[in-house]
Design brief:
The complex is a heterodimer. Chain A is mainly α. Chain A contains 12 helices and 5 strands. Classes of the chains: A mainly alpha, B alpha/beta. Chain A: Keywords: Amino-acid transport, Cell membrane, Membrane, Transmembrane, Transmembrane helix, Transport.
Amino acid sequence: MTTMTDPEKGGFHVSQLLSDTRYRAYTFQAIALIALIVAFAYLGANLVSNLRAAGLDISFKFLGSEAGYGVEQALIPYTSQSSNWQAAKVGILNTLLVAVLGCAMATVFGVIAGVLRLSNNWIVSRIMAAYVEAFRNVPVLIWILIIYAAVTNAFPVARDYLGEDPERNMMFGVMAFTNRGVYVPMPVWNAGAAVVLAVFVLSLIAIALYRRHVTKTLFSSGRILPTFWPTLALLIVPTVLAYFIMGRPIGFDAPDTLSNRFNIQGGVQISASFIALWFALSIYTGAFIAENVRAGIQAVSSGQTEAAAALGLRPRRIMKLVVLPQALRVIIPPLISQYLNLTKNSSLAIAVGYSDITATLGGITLNKTGRAIECVLLIMLFYLAISLAISVVMNIYNNSVKLKER
Amino acid sequence: MKKSVILGALALAGVSAGAAAAGTLDDVKARGKLNCGVVTGLVGFGAPDANGEWQGFDVSMCRAVAAAVLGDPNAVQFVPTTGKTRFTALSSGEIDLLARNTTWTFSRDVDLKFEFIGVNYYDGQGFMVPKALNVSSAKDLDGATICVQTGTTTELNLADYFRKNNISYEPVPIETNAEGQQQYLAGACDAYTTDMSGLASTRATFEAPGEHVLLPEIISKEPLAPLVRHGDNEWADVVRWTLNALIAAEEAGITSANIGELSAQAGDAPEINRILGTEGDLGEMLGLDNEWAKRAIMAGGNYGEIFEKNIGEASPIGLARGLNAQWTDGGLLYAPPFR
């Protein structure tokens, strides 16, 4: 028995919008949509009229005017006379830098901790459990501040390295660890450096091709070719050869401890605030990723492991060939959220004075110009764009590893 | 087959920008408490003491206004603000008055739509360095790492000064004075820069203040002024004349010791009579009663007494009056006449 009767063909009446089940859902959706639009229009109009009443207007002209402040870390040319827009770009690049490096390091921490937490060794698995619980259950801001305080108070002051007769010598003569950051040599690219780089990139491609060949041989003839030594040789030998053939085109600009009485000059300074932010974000997010990895591995039924063992595979190969490919399907979707979280958490940079987008555009520029709405709008747009981009990339990757149903 | 997509109800938080254009005086009276924005903690200017009571030079301004308007110097809700949050707090109506060593500048006055009601401290930006560095002038600081509070004019002056002298520096942006102090003492920066008064105040809290020197260069003019929202002239007048009353009281010789005697009855000095309300009706013109200024002065004494108690040479901060002396003593303090 059915409660639905076949509607009559033809002859549409307005009353059918409510009475006919074919149209009713659309009617209510249209009403809801209109209500939503009206609500947003009301809020927007309210904002505009209040702004006008307060004598404020929306204008982005301030982006072109002089910023007037210095920033600690700029990946592109920047001085205090650069525009506010240039300062915003400096901030954007700093945010991207800490987000990309943070995601990479968090993945490393997470995979290692997640796999080791399932170890049969009691001590190892307990240590990893302690790591996960300690870092997952304390707010990331606290970790950032703790690590920053540790860096500033535990590392030696820069002055110890300075002068003809310093209290401390640089590690290997080129690296200095100070509470202002870590100073490392900066590569100097001379003529011919491009050739060396090209050779390096080509050898990376060669490694990928060789590995594909190894897999193919395994599947077609069952022979296992060696991978470790050929990979290492391909990675190092051609590049080193090219380096010497081209007459050592890549030099290093080591940090200089003599030219200034306050600071180490030259080289690359990895600032203390960056180290604190990067490390705190990756170790915190790593704890979450560890749980994702553990969940993913445990989601693969133990029958798979046992079957692989019965075939004579060694534990490492079982993990690589049988468990991880299946676990990845479970791991990737929550991993996307963790990457998004890390990127957004990087806005806590302001706590340690790292010059990210929130600190430059959303901090000093906003404060100096008083253009709060414009600045906040731009920052929202930026984080939205970055988050969506991460989602897209990770979803593409997810599609490539997920179960192919045929 | 029908797929019905249900649009969930969207809870919309209505944002009603506080269009508090007028009537702050009435609001404060109705509330019975003055919401006063102060610094998060700068000894001598605004910081809670051992008992949790807010004390300091700027705090006294809040108490004087509360005493004038509400008759009780303790009817103040102190709202700690950072360099970044202070302006939003004021323009959104969260606070009625911002008394937080804030520099009076053109763009803050005109573009940010605030009303600076008069300078209560003439300051200038300076540098503090450890004595061990053997620096005697700010011009020797080429290449130094400098801690600077972010979101303040300090940051802009610093960039200008180094640019003008064609020397370089590395900024370490910090959020609060406490953080700057920690970074400076750990040696993460070579020098700390902020207003001279702030440096003196910070140095006073060090374990060994003698090991740090303030450099002689003053690289900017920093007239620190309390401020209110633009467009509420009645309220601005109340705050402006409370400050003027404190300054005029010092000039006229009204102190917390003799104020009871002077206000008992009209004396020989007409200016004192008008300030203390024993003659004329200046208070009513302000929308208050005639004893408003008397209460404001009784809250913490006149300008000179407030200065000496909180930041003067006898206090741990140890600042000389300098530019902040009365005009009759060669300073810049000059209150308009009460008539």
